[in-house]
């Protein structure tokens, strides 16, 4: 696979536990880059001919300075460089390197606003045991295949992502699994799951109907799990099972996504149509009335550049506006409108279908997917440009991919404070 890589969490965990593999490839890191070591060595050998990149000069740099340079590398380049020597290979288990990496402001490092797609479990060809995903780089317009091996048990489906973690929920046993270096579980599974991860905190919100019995009155509520590290080895606190009643008229869509913006989770609510939000700090829910609620189709909430954005199709013949796909920001100011020519293409590609469309946002980008179709649209908020995405070459042409915002993180230190045996999660 040209330019691609395979992610193997089993190998990654072995590397974190101290397995020493420094020859040939970067498989011990868990991320296997095709011809990674050869490409890096070839790059170094070609640049050594340049006096500015003379190896005799650069080899005399202090190790601490070299480590700082490496800390600024994007994750793919980091694992590419790991195969150079044993010392670089062991940086992931070096406390001094981890501390320095975390001290560097995330704003100082280049963000990698990628998207991770999985086959929708409703597809006939979906194989829950295949455990593979498809990474899309919107800047390079390239696809990569990722394999999770046997780390994710059968019967789990991805539901949310944040801070480099992918949150999975089980179809039967009602448990939650967060994959990076450790996993955690919850005794119950609700229709909607919200996840927000930082270096010092982890928030999980599960909300919806208890569904205790089809003959019982449904108890519409939510549970919030918060893990906070005080830093400096001072310990941590776990708020587990904190309940908060949902708004009276809130009707969450099963499997609906939650979007985290400005310390609050947001999700779509139907019948009546509005937006429900949860304030993490205040432990309370609130409602936001959406515009033109009777005339919107397939409304989707996404986070884009730290802002809450509503994406929906406007389709009402009596309105004095043509059918189109539009975007609104908070206070419901229209931020973007798809051109009529593009909307016609979008409709012909399946955007007018009964199943509607789904959206996912990350950084400056928003991707619109069509259920059962390989067609995807990319919108760049910075460039104000629309572009069709080339079909994923690894999905088998099945279409129906479900996407998540994904920004790879070498370390998620908050997980070190969470025991996989915590009864609350």
Automatic annotation (TrEMBL):
Boundaries of every F-box domain copy: 55-101
Organism per entry: Papaver atlanticum
Pfam families associated with the record: F-box
UniProt protein name: F-box domain-containing protein
Lineage: Eukaryota, Viridiplantae, Streptophyta, Embryophyta, Tracheophyta
């Amino acid at each position: 696979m040209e330019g691609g890589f395979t992610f193997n969490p089993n190998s990654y965990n072995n590397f974190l536990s101290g397995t020493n593999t420094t020859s040939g490839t970067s498989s011990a890191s868990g991320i296997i880059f095709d011809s990674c070591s050869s490409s890096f060595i070839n790059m170094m050998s070609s640049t050594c001919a340049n006096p500015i990149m003379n190896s005799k000069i650069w080899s005399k740099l202090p190790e601490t300075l070299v480590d700082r340079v490496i800390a600024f590398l994007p994750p793919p380049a980091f694992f590419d460089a790991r195969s150079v020597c044993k010392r670089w290979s062991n940086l992931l288990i070096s406390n001094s390197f981890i501390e320095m990496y975390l001290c560097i402001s995330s704003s100082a490092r280049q963000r990698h606003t990628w998207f991770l797609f999985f086959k929708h479990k409703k597809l006939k060809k979906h194989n829950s045991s295949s455990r593979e995903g498809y990474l899309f780089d919107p800047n390079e317009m390239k696809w990569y295949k990722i394999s999770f091996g046997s780390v994710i048990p059968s019967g789990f489906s991805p539901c949310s992502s944040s801070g480099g973690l992918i949150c999975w929920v089980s179809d039967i046993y009602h448990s939650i699994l967060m994959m990076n270096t450790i996993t955690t579980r919850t005794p119950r599974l609700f229709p909607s799951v919200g996840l927000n991860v930082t270096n010092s905190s982890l928030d999980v919100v599960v909300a919806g109907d208890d569904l205790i019995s089809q003959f019982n009155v449904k108890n519409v509520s939510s549970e919030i799990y918060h893990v906070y590290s005080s830093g400096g080895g001072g310990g941590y606190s776990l708020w587990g099972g904190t309940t908060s009643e949902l708004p009276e008229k809130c009707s969450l869509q099963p499997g609906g996504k939650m979007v985290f913006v400005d310390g609050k989770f947001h999700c779509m609510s139907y019948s009546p149509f509005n937006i429900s939000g949860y304030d993490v700090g205040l432990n309370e829910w609130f409602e936001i009335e959406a515009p033109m609620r009777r005339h919107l189709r397939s409304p989707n909430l996404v986070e884009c550049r730290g802002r809450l954005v509503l994406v929906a199709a406007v389709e009402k013949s009596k309105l004095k506006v043509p059918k189109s796909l539009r975007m609104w920001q908070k206070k419901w100011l229209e931020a973007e409108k798809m051109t009529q020519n593009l909307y016609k293409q979008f409709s012909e590609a399946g955007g007018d279908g009964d199943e509607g469309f789904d959206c996912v946002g990350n950084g400056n980008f928003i991707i619109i997917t069509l259920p059962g179709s390989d067609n995807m649209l990319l919108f760049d908020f910075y460039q104000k440009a629309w572009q069709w995405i080339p079909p994923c070459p690894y999905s088998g042409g099945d279409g129906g991919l479900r996407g998540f915002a994904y920004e790879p993180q070498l370390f998620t230190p908050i997980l070190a404070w969470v025991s996989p045996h915590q009864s609350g999660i």
